[in-house]
Amino acid sequence: MHPKINIFFYTAYVDIALCDCPYGQGGRFCKHLCAVQERFSLVLNTSPLLHSEDRIILAKLALGNEASVDFYMDMDVSTIITNSNSDNSTQNNEQSINIPMNVDEATSVETQQIRFTEGPSDPLHIREATNLKSNFIRISEIALKNPNSDLTKVMHKINLTLGQLTTATQVQSYLCQMQIRNQYSYNRGRQIGVQPTSKSRRKIRPGLTSGAKRIQSGRPSKNESKQLTKKERHLAANINKNTPNAKSH
């Protein structure tokens, strides 16, 4: 404290985000730390995270009464102001002008005035969803009329998969996989039949391995060690031994 001007001086420790003022001694984020953070463009560990409600309050403090309530809402969410009559609308406007002191009051006022609703449903989406429902009902009726053990197993697996779908994204992914599999099977049947390649005609011979065969690691087995030795291309020795095909060419 300065003896003549009655000004208190506090020390802000930036490395540990602590201030020795009465408010910041317990580790809270005081106004002195906020001033240091804004002045020197720092990011302290104890700085609070701003939510959407906090940003709305800051925007109201900056703009005042010039902007309407719809201005502070998200652009991708349609908002409807619930006003029952003219008296209630004027009262709601007066409440929106008064800036609340804390975040709880701000959220309560916003929830009273604004109701978030999803946009109008697409008629094409409704029609396709209805057709999908009717197709599932038709398939279930066919399955009920034709009991089969194999069909029962398939339905059990499909029901387990469908039971795990809880969001629209999961449903979309599952339907896309069904479409890809159906398209692949349809295109596969329309492919032109060709003769097998020369590699598929080759017979497996001892000592000849394919490129896709797994190479064993470690000590080789007895079967792999018994490889056929090639015939020595020694023309004089082959003639003396009366070996057929003694020529080297």
UniProtKB/TrEMBL annotation:
Feature: compositional bias, Basic and acidic residues: 221-230
Record field: compositional bias (Polar residues): 239-249
Span of domain SWIM-type: 10-41
GO molecular function, one term: zinc ion binding
Keywords assigned by UniProt, alphabetized: Metal-binding, Zinc, Zinc-finger
Span list, region Disordered: 190-249
InterPro entries according to UniProt: Znf_SWIM
PROSITE patterns: ZF_SWIM
PANTHER family (UniProt xref): PROTEIN B, PUTATIVE-RELATED (PTHR35385:SF2), PROTEIN B, PUTATIVE-RELATED-RELATED (PTHR35385)
Name this polypeptide is given: SWIM-type domain-containing protein
Organism from which the protein derives: Rhamnusium bicolor
